[in-house]
Amino acid sequence: MTAKGAADEAALDIRTENGVRFITKINAATHYGISIAVCRELGAAIEAAACDPEVRAVVIDAGGRGFHRGAVMVTELQADMEALGDEDFRELVHRGQQLGRKVAGLPKPVIGLARSGALGGGLEQLLRCDFVFAREDARFSFPEVTLGFVAAWGGTQWAGRMMPMRRAQELLLLGNAISGSEAAEQGLITRAFADDAALDAHLADVLGQLERCSPAAFAQTKRCLSAIWEGPLAHGEAVELDAEAGAMGTGDFRLAYAAWMQGMTYNFAQGRPESRDALR
Q: Within this chain, do residues 82 and 217 fall inside the same structural domain, yes or no?
């Protein structure tokens, strides 16, 4: 299906294949950036994926060259840029942060594809994904400081935590661009690949691996990882305690353990044990 944005223009292409919800920005008119339409429809798509039992993973992509541009909605808040005021500035941040929280909070795997890279708000939303894959020649940047903005959709907080601080300072305080290879080396993204074929092959492999992960255990482990940023070690340990009880309470561990005792692995997507050779 195709989601509709402002003026009935298509903002997203949404399709589901083998339990994977593929969400692709197709808003070429706004250069695959985060427009008001994309923000609204992507948020709705994430909410729908959370409620759909048939969806086991989400992949977020961009059309064209596969480059995610920034917060183009700043040009849509008022008919005249000169009319923008404090209320608009705060609304801009609120919308972007709210969308980011939805992406990060989805209790299912979220994979971001940035084939040729991302900048600004587009990059900030990708940082909320569980995995981000790009080509080695992709380009990533936070140009906000050169444009009179702050990377306030979580860019300063997420990049500042994921990367070595000195590298994050170069990226955010100077507006420098880095390659996909550098982004992977510095922890900004998960992995970079030589070409699209290698990227797509790895995506297929990861989606296959996720079939053998308990959905409940994945969601609870994701919750525990988030707790790292929420408070001290004692808080994280308390979350772990609750998460373990929640995951094991589903009974998934019994299915996986029974398969393991037979020298097999359990495919949660297919609902059956299978040979461990399938992992290779």
A: no
Element (H, E) at 37: helix 36-51
pLDDT computed for residue 276 by the predictor: 80
Residue 279: band (very low, low, confident or very high) from pLDDT cuts 50, 70, 90: low
| 120 and 197 co-located in one domain | yes
Contact criterion met (CB below 8 Å) for 124 and 72: no
Quote the tokens at residue 115. 């084939």
Q: 74-99: string of b/e by CB count within 10 Å (b at 16+)?
A: beebeeeeeeeeeeeeeebeebbeeb
Number of separate domains in the chain: 2
Task: Map residue 17 onto helix, strand or coil.
Answer: strand
Same domain, 185 and 235: no
Dihedrals φ, ψ of 262, to 5°?
A: -95, 10
Q: Within its chain, how far is the Cα of 185 from the centroid?
A: 18
